[in-house]
Design a protein that fits this description.
Length: 207
Amino acid sequence: MRGHGFLLANYVPGNSLIHRTPLALKFLLVFACGLASFIIQDWRISTAVLAVLCGLFLLTGAGLKRLWRAVRPLAAVLLVIGLFQWWQLGAPTAARIVLNILVCVVAASLLTATTPVQKLLDGVVKAASPFKRFGADPERFALTIGIMLRSIPYIAGTFADVRDSARARGLERNPRALILPVFITSVAFARQTGEALAARGLGEAED
C-alpha cells in the first residue's frame, strides 16, 4: 500500500526558525488560528492571514508541493462549500468561509510539518496532565491521537489503491468494488492494532 497524507503535512526534518519554536507556541498558533476563523469577518483579512501562514510554511523548507498534498483532499469539499455559500450568502462570505478553513488546515500542517510525532504526543500528554484530577488519562489520550495519525493515512492509502485497482478492471463506478475491499482492509487493520495494544497491556481500562 502506498503512503498517503490526510489533510495535514507530514514531518519534515529541518533546523528552521519554525522547527526551533517551542511546541507550546506552535500549539498556541493553531489555537489562535482556530479562534480567528470564528472572529474574522472580512475575506481580505483571511487572505492576509493565509498568506502569512503559507510564507511561514515555506520557511520550514517543506515546500508548497507538500502543502498542496495536505490540502488537496479538501479541494472538492471546499468547492462545494464555496459554491453553496456563494449562492446563499454571496461571494465575499463564501470566500471568507473557505479561506478560514484553509487557515486552520495550514496552521495545523505547519505544526505537524515541524514537529516529530513523538514530540507532538509528548506535548499532548503534558498539556492534558492538569486534567488528571478529573479522571483523565493523558497517556491514553496521546495514544488515541497516535493511533489516529497512523490509521487515517493508512485507510486513505488503502482507498487510493483499491480505486486504482478497480479502475484497471473497469469497475471504478461500482460501489461494491470500492467500499467492500476498503472495509475489509480497515477492519483487519483495526484488529491488528487492537491485538498489538493488547499484547503490550494497553487499550483496556485499569481496575
